[in-house]
Design brief:
Length: 143
Amino acid sequence: MKVLVLNGPNLSRLDIRDSSIYGDMSYPQLVAHIKSAAESNGFEADVRQSDDEATIICWLHEAADENIPVVINPAAFTHYSYAIRDAAELVKAPLIEVHLSNPLSREEFRHTSVISGVANGTIGGFGPNSYSLALIALKTLIS
Ligand code: DQA
C-alpha cells in the first residue's frame, strides 16, 4: 500500500540545521530511512518535501482524492497554517503528524499545533524514528 510522507519547510536542509535538535542525518539519509521503515511495514513510501504551503496543500488534496494515508511533518507550518490544517482534514485515510524534535520541550510558539486536531495522532521527539513509529501506528490503524 502507498503512503505519502510529506515534509515541510527547511527539512531539506537538515545537514545545516542544529544537530543538537535535529540529529545528524541529512535529508537524503532521512528519506532512505523512511523508505526502508515503510517497506518493513508493508508500505511503499512516496516521500516529498516542500518549502511551499500551496504545494503541501495540493499533495494533501491528492491524498484526499485518492484515499492515500499520510505521514506529515509540517515543520514550522505546524504552528500556524490553518490552510494546511483544513487540507489535512479532507484526508479520510489515516493521517499521522510527526516531528523529529519534541516541540513541547522547545520554545513556547512550538507548543501549539494547529494540525494535531485533525491528525489520528502525533509522534515527536524520536528523531528519524518518529517516522518509523508513525509507520507502525499507521499499519495498526489500517489492519
Ligand atoms: C519540526 C519542529 C518544528 O517546530 C520546526 O519548525 C521544524 C521541524 C521537527 O521535525 O522537529 O522545522 O517539525
